[in-house]
Amino acid sequence: MLTLHVAEASPEAAVLVDGAHIAAVGPYDELAAAHPQARLRRWPGLLLPGLLNPYGPELLERTYHPDPREADALGTEPIGGPRAEALFRADPARRGASARRGVQRLLAYGTVAIAGELRDRAALDAVRRAGLAVGQRPPSLPGPPSLSPSPLILLPALAAGGPARFAVFDVPDRAGLVRQGAGTCVATVLGGRLVYRAR
Question: What does pTM read for this prediction?
Answer without folding.
Answer: 0.94
